[in-house]
Amino acid sequence: PMVREHFLDPMVARPKITTKLSSNENPYGPPLSAQEAVAESVKRGNRYAWQEMADLIDKIAKKEGVTPENIMMGPGSSDLLEKVALVMFMNGGNIVSADPCYMSLVNVAKSVGATWKAVPCKEDWSHDLKAMEAAIDKDTKLVYICNPNNPVGSITSGKELLDFCARVSEKVPIFVDEAYIELAVGADTQSMVSLISQNKNVIVARTFSKIMGMAGIRVGYMAAQPEFLKKIQKITRGGMGISYTSIFAASASLDDAEFQDMTRTKNHEAKKYLYSSLEKMGYTYIPSYTNFVIFPINIPGKELLSKMITKGIGVKAYEIQNKPWCRVSIGTMDEMKIFVGALQDLS
Ligand code: PLP
């Protein structure tokens, strides 16, 4: 693999993080509508929320143009990524994905014995779909695609991906992680969920952690063929990890288009400010279709992390193709100014 993430030594005493730009959260959430729904739902927390979960699933199915049998809920999409990895790879096999990509599913697959077939991204950091198709062999159990991709922020053409998924899913199931899709402003992209009603063996994961601003409230879902979901749920139940309050928050935020639009607009503005600041300082960056930007740096990743942390700023550092990179999440405009100031102080 050509990617490695750097971490600070946990033994090193560090100041509190006051500008958190490390986990691609939404600085504006949770929406007020969701906060009110949570307050209301707390009173009912003595009960299991089966009926309310069924109502939420109905609402999601309607929005996605699928049936409720196509939906499985989880406390965040991480839970679903990990469950799929456990069930699909408990008897070995290999997983094909891009490198770099978001590693949750791949890491769990590897930990239960899967082999990772890493396919380098193209020069523009989009998925090399041709090479990924060529990497599939008789032991491939799943193809994992993250679009837009993390940690690179790049997009793979929706049209090309749709064609790839429709065709290649005849051979092997394709898992498409769309955590950031609502933030892909100005991109040729689309959800792969339309393939599910065409009976394709495609699994689409979505989360309430990003555009909906609810990373800490923990709700996600995946849409897939009912047979696929049955296979996962035979081993590990869906929905059991979600609280009454999370269900209410998710339902309210789904209806809150105003909050989602505001997030998209503000994210785009703050990202443009970051781009122009980076350009002024002579940095290059990968154009991002998400709420984070990754760019090459001139000092070792660990050094960047420790210098940022002394100012209370949390970011991520990676080594990609043997070079150090910084990934910064898009916060509020004020937070981006703090980050840009700290970056200027480095030189
Ligand atoms: N998928 C991608 C691509 C992500 O970047 C993340 C989180 O950052 C997740 C999934 C998991 O998010 P959650 O478990 O909060 O839904």
Short description:
It comes from Arundinibacter roseus. The chain is α/β, with parallel strands linked by helices.
What does the model show?
The chain is an alpha/beta fold and 347 residues long. The protein has two domains: 111 residues, Aspartate Aminotransferase, domain 1, CATH 3.90.1150; 224 residues, Aspartate Aminotransferase, domain 2, CATH 3.40.640.10. It is built from eleven helices and 13 strands. It has a seven-stranded mixed beta sheet with strand order 3-9-8-7-6-4-5, with helices on both faces. A four-stranded antiparallel beta sheet has the order 1-12-13-10, covered by helices on one side. A hairpin with a 2-residue loop joins strand 12 and strand 13. Helix 1 runs antiparallel to helix 8, helix 2 packs parallel to helix 8 and helix 9 runs parallel beside helix 11. It is globular. This is Histidinol-phosphate aminotransferase family protein. It comes from Arundinibacter roseus. Pfam families: Aminotran_1_2. InterPro entries: Aminotransferase_I/II_large, HistidinolP_aminotransfase, PyrdxlP-dep_Trfase, PyrdxlP-dep_Trfase_major, PyrdxlP-dep_Trfase_small, TAT_signal. Keywords: Aminotransferase, Pyridoxal phosphate, Transferase.
